[in-house]
Amino acid sequence: MTTLPGSPSEETPIPRFHLTNLSVRLITAAVVLPIVVIISLVGGWAFAIACGVIALLGMIELHGIGYAWAKRRGHLDLVSFTGAAVFGLAYIGIPTLMLITVRNLPNGAVWIALIYALTWGTDTFAYIGGRLWGKVPLAPRISPKKTREGAITGIIGSFFAGILVLLVTGKFDPVFLPLLMLAPAAAIVGDLFESAIKRTAEIKDSHLTGFNIFPGHGGVLDRIDSLIFVSTLTFIFLQLVQTGVAL
To answer: Which of 10, 57, 122, 160 has the fewest C-beta atoms under 10 angstroms from its C-beta?
Structure first.
């Protein structure tokens, strides 16, 4: 069979359109972010149910990670499953209750916005800093792609993102400065902690096979790992402020 010049043939396959990982991440964020913002503003049962669903999915993923780890080492027994369940409740369940409690506080929407700014700000600025200046690995054995330069950029950028939220909402007070300095570091630790869990189980992403609700972002655990630590820290700090201990 004769083909005309420039015509597609078996020897010259037709190019296919592929989205880069960054493009997929941006599209997913553009879809998910408005939903998260709306539910957070509505609060009440809508926020509590949404948090409960995400927490449940996270615990299912954690159970899958634990199963993969136990299967490789031949520890598929009741003790292992019980330990994984208890760890899941402590690691995901309790921080989720703390996040819901924070939303139900006076000015709860402001504190949730602050948590998001400190969490997502750290992640976003760390990504930018790592791409622009990243050279020295932060924790090469746990997460080889993370750099110290990215972490520093994330901490600084998140600090100012938190200040901006407090200024815009009229809630800025010097008493919050310790939280603004500690929360970005907590976000990084939370990320590394979940990475260490995956590294131990020898898996890349936390999502279950065939069930990836955040394309380009890994699994649910990959999205809430930093949020878990920042929510816990913010809840404790707000309780200290409320009781006057942090004043």
So the answer is: 10
